[in-house]
From TrEMBL:
Similarity remark: Belongs to the glycosyltransferase 20 family.
Pathway: Glycan biosynthesis; trehalose biosynthesis
Name this protein carries in UniProt: Trehalose-6-phosphate synthase
GO biological process: trehalose biosynthetic process
UniProt subunit comment: Homotetramer.
Biological role stated in the UniProt entry: Probably involved in the osmoprotection via the biosynthesis of trehalose. Catalyzes the transfer of glucose from UDP-alpha-D-glucose (UDP-Glc) to D-glucose 6-phosphate (Glc-6-P) to form trehalose-6-phosphate. Acts with retention of the anomeric configuration of the UDP-sugar donor.
EC numbers for this chain: 2.4.1.15
Reactions accelerated catalytically: D-glucose 6-phosphate + UDP-alpha-D-glucose = alpha,alpha-trehalose 6-phosphate + UDP + H(+)
Protein species of origin: Caenispirillum bisanense
PANTHER family recorded: BCDNA.GH08860, TREHALOSE-6-PHOSPHATE SYNTHASE
Entries under SUPFAM superfamilies matching the protein: UDP-Glycosyltransferase/glycogen phosphorylase (SSF53756)
A GO MF term: alpha,alpha-trehalose-phosphate synthase (UDP-forming) activity
Pfam families: Glyco_transf_20
Amino acid sequence: MSRLVVVSNRVAVPDDGPARAGGLAVALREALQENGGIWFGWSGKTAVRPAEEPAVTEAPPVTYATLDLSRCDHQEYYNGFANRTLWPLFHYRLDLADFNRQDYTGYLRVNTHFAEKLQPLLRATDDIWVHDYHLIPFASELRRLGVANRIGFFLHTPFPAMEVFLALPSHERLARSLCAYDVVGFQTMNDLRAFQDYIVHEQGGEFLGDNMLRAFGRTLRAEVYPIGIEVEAMQRTAAHAMQEPAVRRLIKHMGERRLMIGVDRLDYSKGIPERFRSFERFLEKFPSHQGSVSLMQIAPVSRGEVPEYKAIRSELEHLAGHINGVYGELDWMPIRYLNKGFPRETLTGFYRACRVGVVTPLRDGMNLVAKEYVASQNPHEPGVLVLSRFAGAARELDAAVLVNPFDHENVADALNRALAMSLEERTERWEAMMQKVHDSSLDKWRERFLSVLRAVPEGGYGAA
Ligand code: G6P
């Protein structure tokens, strides 16, 4: 079996300690351990004069190779084009997208540099799996250097509708780069259709059936691979997590009151201000819940140097303060807003202790919190998931209480309904969701993608 080479912006180097390795990192590490391989990408650090060659950590049979970024590269590639252009655009926030040519040049420069540094480490038989929007041009850069290996790409975010993608000045170059891959994976049918639509209608590409596309002189496979979680591990952790000191503290403090929980990176795509406003509407519309139901919002700060992220942070501080000021009592606060992360063990306990999981992004590739909330529930007394229809997860978890996060009235009603739901209905919905969570577990996602990538004929589909 050939080696695997994983390329992603963030690399979970084991030296960084276990706390940083989320489910995805663990799953990718396992894939690398099976046949040996390399995990290549950014070190997460900036340097005034970054070393020319990657820093290598050997953990046989896996090699971790990471590069630092210069301040300028970090600004233009990561803060700039990746997170101020592609991220908002892919999440349908054209109003927030900044189309800065200098950032775009920096994005291409880092992709070129990274490809040039990986190329000497490659063997002819390696299979290469590139992740996410930071690295779309990576394969075309490798191809330019003569790399003919199988290269796959998985987009963790949504792929936007054609009309939105067209607003990107460099849409054609990025689409051409995507077609340099042999396999391109999307989270949902919606994303795949948007991509096909663009390739066929804007670029005159050809849909060959069986998820094959021909465009820009190449043939590739573009398919849906919904990402999942480590279901069994999560269930086991959640069962024990009720004994965690932080979880016990929370339960003791809550007493008879009930909790709803939201867990998100502090990102405008997650719809947290809209959620707070919906929660306010819920308190206003159903006053009997005042004093007895709180929303716990865990939102660790993310991409804090990007102006739009700074703005959402102050908006939320203002909103939480306002709602707590208006509705709070001496012994009850409606919103518990925490700008910090918790270890996974603790989080699963929080999920289990909270009657309602509130996952209401305005747009999300998948949203694994939704799946984690479901897997963490006590099978004998499951909570209710209130889920945005604009999260990729809603495609599978259609037994959740689906909502339109832009419609505060709709979300307020859904929260009320979730609290009133009978155990019988909760159990029925939970069982249906658990089935779906099992069907697309993280292992299955990884195995499906890799088996398709490994089945690409030598030299690519064009050569078949
Ligand atoms: C999203 C992206 C990932 C990214 C993560 C955290 O899930 O799809 O690629 O790693 O957010 O964001 P950060 O900018 O801190 O890497």
